[in-house]
Amino acid sequence: MGLDNRKKEVLQAIVDDYVATCEPVGSKALIDRHDFMVSSATLRNDMAELERMGYLEQPHTSAGRIPSDKGYREYVNSLMKVDHLSDEEGREIKEKLGKSFDEIASLLKAASAALADQTGYISLAVTPKLTSSYLTQLKMLMIEPGKVLVVVVLSAGVVKNRMVRIPDFLTQEQVAQISNAVEQGLSGMPLSEISLITVATAAKDNQKVELPDALLNQVLYEAYTAIKQADNLDVYMDGKHRMLSLPEFSDTKRAQGLFDTLSHDGLVAGYVDEVAQQDGKKEYMIRICQEITLEGLDGCSFITTTYNVGGKVAGNIGVIGPKRMEYSKVISQINFVRMMIDEQLKQ
Amino acid sequence: MGLDNRKKEVLQAIVDDYVATCEPVGSKALIDRHDFMVSSATLRNDMAELERMGYLEQPHTSAGRIPSDKGYREYVNSLMKVDHLSDEEGREIKEKLGKSFDEIASLLKAASAALADQTGYISLAVTPKLTSSYLTQLKMLMIEPGKVLVVVVLSAGVVKNRMVRIPDFLTQEQVAQISNAVEQGLSGMPLSEISLITVATAAKDNQKVELPDALLNQVLYEAYTAIKQADNLDVYMDGKHRMLSLPEFSDTKRAQGLFDTLSHDGLVAGYVDEVAQQDGKKEYMIRICQEITLEGLDGCSFITTTYNVGGKVAGNIGVIGPKRMEYSKVISQINFVRMMIDEQLKQ
DNA sequence: GTTTAGCACTCGAGAAGGTTGAGTGCTAAA
DNA sequence: TTTAGCACTCAACCTTCTCGAGTGCTAAAC
User: Fold this and answer.
1) Which of A198, A236, A333, B171 could be cross-linked to A112 through a Cys-Cys bond (beta carbons 3.0 to 4.6 Å apart)?
2) Cα(A246)–Cα(B141) distance, rounded to whole angstroms?
3) Residue B135 CB partners (closer than 8 Å, separation 6+)
4) Interface with chain A: mutation pick from B149, B152, B175, highest number of A CBs within 10 Å
5) How far, in Å, CA of B282 to CA of A58, rounded?
6) Are the C-beta atoms of residues B306 and B315 closer than 8 Å to each other?
7) 3-class SS at B65?
8) Contact B244 A259 (CB under 8 A)
9) Least CB-CB distance to B255: which of A159, A163, A252?
């Protein structure tokens, strides 16, 4: 049932060659480029066998073989060698991420850019899932009468802000008092426990000014929305246009389909998260072509990994490339970037 | 020298047809689709003449004619009729922009999305140039020891924030005092007059705590940077991937060149601004193909217009499309969106 | 049993040639 | 100045042909 050693080598060689050239690989080419100690006829037999077993495919009778999804899967599971990044490459990435960032958002943006640059594929970075984090600060700054900037600071160092409208006649002092009351009542509370009710309770317990309930509730609702919104997953994506130079996307229809899907940040973030749930324990997650349950990504593969904030599992970064991707290289690149992120978010 | 009436009609008809079909227009097709009261032979003579004058081009001898850059220029300058948007279209745009926005950033983002949707081309919206506006608020919120969020509020209703690092041992009170001092000293001051020196003066005139100069200056420098950074032009772009469905970009090389250029926000913003400087007085600015002095936009045209904040000239919105663009329609769409923006930013 | 040489076969890619038809310019008459 | 008529051009398309990389199968060799 399993593959004997030579078959494994053959499959590996075919994947390597096909990844490099995007051309079906024939038995002769295989002999030329690798030093198998057997003849092409023998390889032909092996290849026919591999095809029968589902690891290879033939575009047409008189062409070479290309790996099937199953072939790629076998390759990433047991054949490829993930080795360390060359010093040179490590240095390049470090250069792009070298300076320290004061905000997760900028760090992720830079990481995404670096990853796209380095891999040549599409990179993505998703902000941490914040359900396990708690509120540390809430400030409401009156920008002008009726307009308030709500700044929400969460434990993981995430800062978000949102402009909201409130009744015109509320004074700066009143707003500040509400803001202080809510902050006092909620700071330290896990995001998951914050609801409209807890917000209201916090305000009323700590409030020193008297305001009609309806009015107060309106302001509190805005504060609540701002807090909840801080929990949204943001996605940073980069390198999309590089895909156009790949032969598999020389057909603009396909490229368009891909871009269409990718323009829905929510879909992508959701899918990344879903994958992370499924493969939670693994160092990195891989989805090959048909394994991707997200429409429009035909012919693509997906590699993601999880970075940590303050030691706890948090967000994801990853790469979307063609099925014919340099898996081992990309994995080591992603790992390296993840390590750099972890380093910066250590405490 | 000038064009007689029929020649004008012929040119107009050719542009219209070519825009619609992206196929070279022949004399017969012209007769079929428009009711010229002359024969195709006559049109042939006119077309030959128009070609001699530089308004038309012929891809090859036995093909129809397509408009040259000069032809498009003549078309937009004096032939096309810019008419009002259909009620239907106006309604669609209004729907997308209908709700009021509390922040310029979100408004522009929505405007850009609506414009891209509506035109089917690439839209862009550039934040206002803020040199003529002044600082109204500056708040420094201590997020954790050593990390401060600087919130800058400008007169045009623009709010920006930036996380900065300061020495660890500064207390919340000290930061608040510096922040208050700077705000007090600078609020109402035009951005153009704010410099490291004015920031320092403001702080020292109003400061109540004593801090070593070197330390204070470090914090002030960060505040200054945050203020200056609020002046950066941001660009919101949308609809890029739609270009892939146009026949002129079925060649992925070209699409890639375009996307490459557009990924440099700074370049685009700078160019938009440059165009606005040149054509300042006009209701809308048009650059056709070769007229665009920005590399990588071969075959594209550019239509922009200027929106106002509080009655003063401010930022720009626009559309990038193929040279073969529905100029008159796009112009009316841009105008409509501009009006909607002006409306929201009236005061 | 495994490997190999040999051979007939397959089939896409690309070149060569032919046809079609939309479009032209020119001329001569209206 | 306009028009009909006609010869001419040339990309696009189709068909046909050749080429060669690659295959599977068989029978001999190891």
Assistant:
1) A236
2) 47
3) B152, B153, B154, B155, B183, B186, B187, B188, B189, B191, B194, B227
4) B149
5) 61
6) yes
7) strand
8) yes
9) A252
pTM of the entire predicted model: 0.92
Q: Do A166 and A218 contact (CB within 8 A), yes or no?
A: yes
pLDDT at residue number B345: 86
Are A177 and A207 a contacting pair, CB within 8 Å? Answer: yes
Instruction: State, as a whole number of angstroms, the distance between the CA of B328 and the C1' of D2.
Output: 33
Give the pLDDT score at B347.
65
- Assess contact for A73 and A292: CB atoms under 8 A: no
pLDDT digits (tens, 9 = 90+) for A43-71: 999 999 999 999 999 999 999 999 999 99
Sorting pLDDT into bands at 50, 70 and 90, what band is A209?
Answer: low
User: Which residue of A153, A157, A245 is in closest CB contact with B256?
Assistant: A245
**Average pLDDT of chain A to the nearest whole number:** 92
B265-278 and B252-262 helices cross at what angle (nearest 10)? 80
Residue nearest D10, CA–C1′ metric: B62
H/E element, A238: strand A235-238
Instruction: Select from A153, A222, A252, A347 the residue whose CB has the most chain B CBs within 10 Å, as the one to mutate to test that interface.
Output: A252
Check pLDDT > 90 for residue B263: yes
Strand C proximal to A35 Cβ, under 7 A: no
Q: Which amino acid is at A73?
A: R
Q: Choose the most confident range, by mean pLDDT, from A80-89, B18-27, B95-104, B128-137.
A: B18-27
Nucleotides of D under 7 A from a protein CB: 2-5, 8-11, 20-26
**pLDDT tens for each residue of B184-211:** 999 889 888 999 999 999 888 876 667 8
B151 to A149: CB separation less than 8 angstroms, yes or no? yes
Nucleotides of strand C lying closer than 7 angstroms to a protein CB: 3-6, 9-12, 21-27
For tokens 């958002």, name the residue.
A105
Q: What is the mean pLDDT of residues B5-15?
A: 96
Beta carbons within 10 angstroms of residue B281's beta carbon: 4
Mean pLDDT score of chain B, rounded to an integer?
Answer: 92
**DSSP conformation letters of B136-172:** EEEEEEEEETTEEEEEEEETTS-EEEEEEE--TT--H
Q: Nearest nt to A60, CA vs C1'? A: C11
Supply the pLDDT for residue A103.
83
Contacts of A235 (CB under 8 A, 6+ apart): A124, A125, A126, A127, A265, A268, A269
Residue B154 has pLDDT above 60, yes or no: yes
Region of residue B311 (phi > 0: left; psi between -120 and 50: alpha; otherwise: beta): left
pLDDT of A1 reads 53
Determine the nucleotide nearest to B40 by Cα–C1' distance. Answer: D3
Q: Given this model, what pLDDT does residue B209 score? A: 65
Phi-psi region of B305 (alpha: psi -120 to 50; beta: other; left: phi over 0): beta
